[in-house]
UniProtKB/TrEMBL annotation:
Gene3D superfamilies: P-loop containing nucleotide triphosphate hydrolases (3.40.50.300). Residues 24-257 form the ABC transporter domain. This is ABC transporter domain-containing protein. InterPro entries: AAA+_ATPase (IPR003593), ABC_transporter-like_ATP-bd (IPR003439), ABC_transporter-like_CS (IPR017871), ABC_transporter_ATP-bind (IPR050166), P-loop_NTPase (IPR027417). It comes from Labrys okinawensis. The keyword Nucleotide-binding applies. One of its GO terms (molecular function) is ATP hydrolysis activity. Keywords: ATP-binding, Nucleotide-binding, Transport. Pfam families: ABC_tran (PF00005). Transmembrane segments: none annotated. The keyword Transport applies. It comes from the Bacteria.
Amino acid sequence: MQVEGVDRKLGAARERTAAGEPVIAVEDLSLTFDTGDGPVYALSKVNLTVNEGDFVSFIGPSGCGKTTLLRVIADLERQTSGSIKVNGLTPEQARLGRHYGYVFQAPALYPWRTIERNVMLPLEVMGFPAAERRERAARNLELVNLKGFEKKFPWQLSGGMQQRASIARALSFDPKLMLMDEPFGALDEIVRDKLNDQLLHLWRTTRKTVVFVTHSIPEAVYLSTKIVVMSPRPGRIIDIIDCDFPRDRTLDIRETPEFLEVAHRVRDGLRAGHSYDD
Ligand SMILES: Nc1ncnc2c1ncn2[C@@H]1O[C@H](COP(=O)(O)OP(=O)(O)OP(=O)(O)O)[C@@H](O)[C@H]1O
């Protein structure tokens, strides 16, 4: 009965999303962690709308609440006050309905499973038949340029390749929304540039909505249609910047005055956020 209820609501949510409802709608959302050392005000009065097809980056210094906000969207944390809807549903309903794929900071692959079997894992849990599991794993590994590595184990792949495999896993059940928590943070700049290009290509061709956490200003400006600048103590949004570059952008745009202007505005926002600490 409960599943039927969720399914009915999911159907209704899809219709509303098709009619232009935001994919994510956050209103006046705050989250305080109660710790032994007293309360930690991780998020304060956050308001945010993510529309279908957006690529939204959260940027800000360590501890400003980027991961916490992503985890609230994914129903891995619950807000203290305020509201949040994902495709018109509560985060719990969206999680149960598999509305999003989540990519963690570290690849988090099972070392005893081959790459293919890691990618197939969510499909096994969801009860997809074996032939479809294999077909989807092959398709998504090709999408992240890992064709030919299906039978390798994670330790046989570089860090960048492992992160691509975890993206393939998050894509395996074809969610329209991807939540990505600093997926390329641990990689060197050249590998990161390459993966940024591949991610942009994937976003353009699959028309997904992406919410992406990063510390890097160039990465945020290069990838995003919208940049959410955050600052700590308490974590809050201090600027939301629209990035109107063409969707088929290439790395050369990083040299253009328009790019540098947006980067400058992000940097100004980050500096202004820090001054709250003084
Ligand atoms: N489970 C928790 N219990 C207590 N405090 C927490 C918990 N999770 C996060 N925090 C605190 O909440 C604040 C926001 O943390 P969060 O991890 O969201 O920041 P962040 O911007 O993602 O940081 P980073 O860039 O370093 O990953 C920090 O002060 C952090 O210490």
